[in-house]
Amino acid sequence: MKKILIIEDEESILMALEDNLRLEGYEVACAVDGEQGLLMAKEQKFNLLILDIMLPKIDGLEVCKQLRKDGINTPILMLTAKSQEIDKVLGLELGADDYMTKPFSPRELLARVKALLRRAGQSRQDTDIYSFGDIEVDFARYEARKKGKLFYLTALEFDLLHFLIKHRSQVMSRDSILDEVWGRNVYVQPRTVDKHIADLRKKIEDDLSNPIHIIGVRGVGYKFIE
Ligand code: CA
After folding, report:
1. Is the N or C terminus of the chain more exposed, i.e. has fewer CB atoms within 10 Å?
2. What is the pLDDT of residue 33?
């Protein structure tokens, strides 16, 4: 089980994050100020840190800097209150891995968390580029292009597409998609798969009434066709 430390002083956000991550099957620890967070991150082993910037005692920027200085390379997802702060964070090159601006949806947060954990789990940076139709997807960089133009896919959509492409031309059941993309310890309805397939189709199919890449097989699941 992956362990995540949340360092956040706003109780409502902390509790919402904690609930959502637990529901996804992560083990969660919490710290309510920078000092406590820094100590916990140094003393225990976590797979990911979610770190707010505005914190009592030691702010998030400093926590991040200190950890990296001490050689702790745990992936860090920074939470910022304003989008302007992101520029500041990026400018400082603190060594955070990703950033989210408040308010954010739980779904978006979970997708980012998953992407960070996945990237951290990859021992080598393999260039994993796949093209079909007028679309090119770089799974290592999490970039997708249509006719050469970047478009946005969530981490979950990348994972879903990656799974279908890996098993192209085979019909994959909703259960096997859930097991592989969401993970076995995650409790979601098979219908969730349909919802995300629909989102993915909107982005990659030219004609939604006649999809040519992600084909639904009634009562069974989905298959990818180039
Ligand atoms: Ca705060």
Report:
1. N
2. 97
What are the tens digits of pLDDT across the range 154-189? Answer: 777 888 999 999 899 999 999 999 888 887 766 778
For the whole model, what pTM was predicted?
Answer: 0.55
Residue with tokens 């992101």: 86
For residue 127, name the pLDDT band (cuts at 50, 70, 90). very low
- Under DSSP, is residue 127 helix (H, G, I), strand (E, B) or coil? coil
- Final residue belonging to a domain, choices 89, 121, 153: 121
- Find the 36 Cα to ligand 1 centroid distance in Å: 14
Residue 7 Cα, ligand 1 centroid: separation in angstroms? 9
Span 192-199, average pLDDT: 90
CB 71 within 8 A of CB 27: no
Is 140 in the same domain as 71? no
**Distance from the CA of 222 to the center of ligand 1, in angstroms?**
42
Question: Which of 55, 88, 121 is a domain's end point?
Answer: 121
Compute the distance from residue 97 Cα to the ligand 1 centre, in Å. 19
Residue 93: band (very low, low, confident or very high) from pLDDT cuts 50, 70, 90: low
Residues 74 and 148 in one domain: no
Domain that holds residue 165: 125-224
- How much distance in Å is there from the Cα of 88 to the middle of ligand 1? 16
How far, in Å, from the CA of 79 to the mean position of ligand 1? 9
* 129 shares its domain with 111: no
Higher pLDDT, 125 or 138: 138
List the alpha helices (DSSP H) in the chain: 11-23, 34-43, 60-69, 83-92, 106-121, 155-166, 174-177, 190-204
